[in-house]
Design brief:
Structural class: alpha+beta
Strand order of the largest sheet: 30-31-33-32-34-35-36-37
Shape: globular
Number of helices: 15
Distance between the termini: 46 Å
Oligomer: single chain
Strand content: 25-35%
Helix content: 10-25%
């Protein structure tokens, strides 16, 4: 979408992402304090150790089953851009799997003079001339420099080469879905008027082989003010169907079934609910209470019903999960015959297996998931939900490396260990604990603290506080070799805050910090910071806060609203100018979260959490590091640029670093990621006295 600048803002000129003067400003900032830190021996040591971890061949390769092969995308020192590779399950179980390279992005980038970044792949299950699944054709998504905008190119998995004259979607924000060998659903930029105000496709079209993209048949068109439109073909054998989804707002949408004649049948659930179809089942995840007939289902519940029964008018839904005050549904995973629930109980994971009798929608059997350790975080992924009841189990916490196991939920046996990440730092003497603190309005807020067992309660420990607090995203304990090596191992403490705005206690926890109630997230974060001081863990001069994206907005509000609580602040790929955010790149899609700054009543409360406008040149602030990416086409780099420029003009202690590529993740390669992480840790160490 076209960006219009605010001419009353003296720093508005920095909104031109790739203008010559703007990039000169970026290079000058990059050559400043950030370059000084990067020239130190301590930085080099930290960066090299983090890079060694990122490049380690002992990491767990995440795999996806496609046909008889297990595919993995991998980066290391020899493959900076990465390789897409495959092996067999038997080989994958070994210490040294026999990998076959399918696509080498370094070689492709060099041959084509591009800086390709892997964005994923979509595979067609069966070709039209095949009597069985052959998984031959794929559409590979590639991004220049890590931006959200990407290209899609047809690829042959049998010959391991791009298809000459095959489907190719030009660079744009969008996606595709295979319908059959000669047909795609395509969502992309078709020219003026084809993208929403949020910068995403507003049409779904059928694109047939041998025709120009401009001739693709219109399937569905959303409104200009919608977030996006997408269509997909469900390839599940015996349950093939076409689905269209209209994202009206970030938390509102409509799901349609598309008939053979192109007609659409809406799945009549609340717009705020998340509806999905798997085999014969419709599941509905509620964000608000729903009374479809004479029974009310609670917000946060997961409901299930046979799709045919629902379309016939039945509203007798099974309650697959019902939340409590302390529990929420983190995720659910279908296998061939079962449904695995991943539940958060006071931010601790537990698993449950549900068996739904496909012949009798009223039958529901619940069994515990055997052999799952009680750890910080458990993630479940189906190996092949179409044909198998096997699942991958990832388990992790702050102090124990991630492990991978394979389990058969139908057999009910103990999970079989498959892989384990190596120990990247020394956890000796470290402990992790969960604490609770009372926020300004009396709400009980949890947070995790990782510290030395013999930590003195005298406030001498440099401590890093991290949070997010938005979009119903939950933060749970995970293993980070970089955090451990650069911070914990050297005597620092680390706190992870589960503030409102997140999803730790379901949709109500999120909704308590939406729009006009955004202040609650910041009150929660400030309460955690004060508790760390009140309990003797640290003092404000030794307390740092860090966050990225929406978490960057959080850190920006800690900087401007509570500068007295912190000794240093790290703000990464952030939102900061909340007056302009909805006009910058994908910002319009987040108005359900923050409000519309162009509506005076909304701006009245948005102004209370817009760091760019809360900044006071006469006030004292702790040192701050801003990092962003020129290639971030989701959260505009001007947020960080303008805030840094404003603070520098007022003579504040500002360190700025903008990676020329990297997208919203901030880095496109392991080397770039190691640099970004080391810069943050060394900035914090210097400012907070870690040494």
């Amino acid at each position: 979408m076209t960006t219009t600048q605010n001419t009353t803002d003296e720093h508005a000129w920095l909104e031109d992402v790739e203008g010559a003067a703007q990039l000169d400003w970026v290079r000058e900032r990059n050559a400043g304090e950030g370059a000084r830190i990067a020239a130190t021996a301590q930085f080099a040591s930290t960066r090299d150790r983090i890079l060694e971890m990122l490049d380690s061949e002992a990491k767990i390769p995440d795999v996806s089953k496609i046909g008889e092969h297990y595919y993995n995308f991998w980066k290391d020192a020899a493959h900076e851009r990465g390789i897409w590779r495959r092996t067999t399950l038997e080989s994958y179980r070994t210490q040294d799997p026999d990998w076959e390279t399918v696509l080498d992005l370094d070689a492709l980038s060099e041959a084509e003079g591009e800086n390709w970044v892997w964005h994923g792949v979509s595979v067609l299950r069966r070709s039209k001339d095949s009597t069985q699944d052959d998984h031959r054709l794929a559409m590979v998504d590639l991004s220049r420099g890590g931006a959200d905008a990407d290209v899609s190119r047809e690829f042959d998995l049998h010959t391991r080469s791009f298809v000459t004259g095959g489907f190719e979607r030009p660079e744009a924000k969008g996606n595709i879905s295979w319908v059959d060998e000669d047909t795609l659903f395509v969502m992309t930029d078709h020219g003026p008027g084809s993208m929403t105000d949020s910068g995403y496709p507003r049409t779904a079209r059928l694109w047939r082989r041998g025709t120009d993209l401009t001739e693709a048949e219109l399937v569905f068109e959303g409104a200009q003010e919608d977030v996006a439109v997408t269509a997909l073909h469900d390839q599940t054998p015996g349950h093939e169907r076409d689905l269209v989804y209209r994202a009206i707002a970030f938390y509102e949408g409509e799901l349609f079934l598309r008939g053979p004649d192109g007609g659409l049948t809406r799945i009549e659930v609340p717009n705020s609910a998340q509806a999905s179809v798997t085999r014969e089942w419709l599941t509905v995840r509620l964000r608000e209470d729903w009374t479809p007939a004479d029974r009310t289902y609670r917000a946060g519940s997961l409901l299930g019903i046979r799709l045919d029964d629902f379309l016939a008018g039945s509203r007798d839904l099974l309650e697959l999960f019902v939340p409590t005050a302390a529990s929420s549904l983190a995720s659910f995973t279908w296998t061939r015959h079962h449904l695995v629930l991943n539940v958060l109980q006071d931010v601790t994971h537990r698993l449950e297996v549900l068996t739904l009798d496909s012949h009798d929608g009223a039958s529901l059997k619940r069994t515990p998931f055997p052999g799952v350790p009680v750890v910080g975080t458990v993630q479940v992924a189906a190996v092949d939900r179409v044909a198998s009841d096997q699942v991958w189990l990832y388990t992790t916490d702050f102090l124990h490396p991630t492990t991978l196991a394979l389990a058969d939920v139908a057999a009910g046996g103990e999970p079989e260990p498959v892989k384990a990440m190596p120990t990247f730092f020394d956890p000796t003497g470290l402990v992790a604990e969960q604490r609770f603190v009372t926020s300004a309005d009396g709400t009980r807020v949890p947070y995790f603290l990782v510290r030395r067992e013999d930590l003195p309660a005298d406030g001498t420990t440099p401590t890093l506080l991290y949070g997010y607090g938005g979009f119903e995203i939950s933060l749970t304990p995970t293993y980070s070799g970089g955090l451990g090596a650069a911070w914990l191992e050297r005597g620092g403490a680390y706190a992870l805050a589960n503030i409102r705005g997140g999803g730790e206690y379901g949709p109500t926890w999120h909704q308590q910090a939406l729009r006009a109630n955004r202040h609650r997230a910041y009150e929660d974060m400030a309460a955690v910071a004060r508790d760390l001081v009140d309990t003797g863990v640290t003092v404000p001069e030794r307390l740092g806060v860090q966050g990225g994206s929406n978490g960057g907005l959080l850190a920006g509000n800690m900087l401007t609203q509570h500068p007295e609580l912190f000794g240093a602040v790290v703000i990464q790929v952030p939102l900061l100018d909340m007056k302009r955010y909805s006009h910058l790149l994908a910002g319009a899609s987040w108005m359900a979260e923050y409000g519309d700054p162009d509506v005076p009543q909304d701006w009245e409360f948005i102004a209370t959490f817009s760091p760019y406008h809360l900044f006071d040149a006469e006030r004292d602030y702790p040192p701050v590091l801003f990092t962003t990416s020129t290639r971030d086409d989701r959260v505009h780099p001007a947020h960080a640029r303008k805030m840094a420029a404003q603070m520098l003009a007022a003579g504040k202690d500002v360190t700025y670093y903008e990676n020329i590529e990297g997208g919203h993740g901030g880095a496109a390669t392991n080397a770039q990621l190691a640099h970004m992480q080391a810069l943050a840790y060394r900035f914090l160490a210097e400012r907070l006295g870690l040494g």
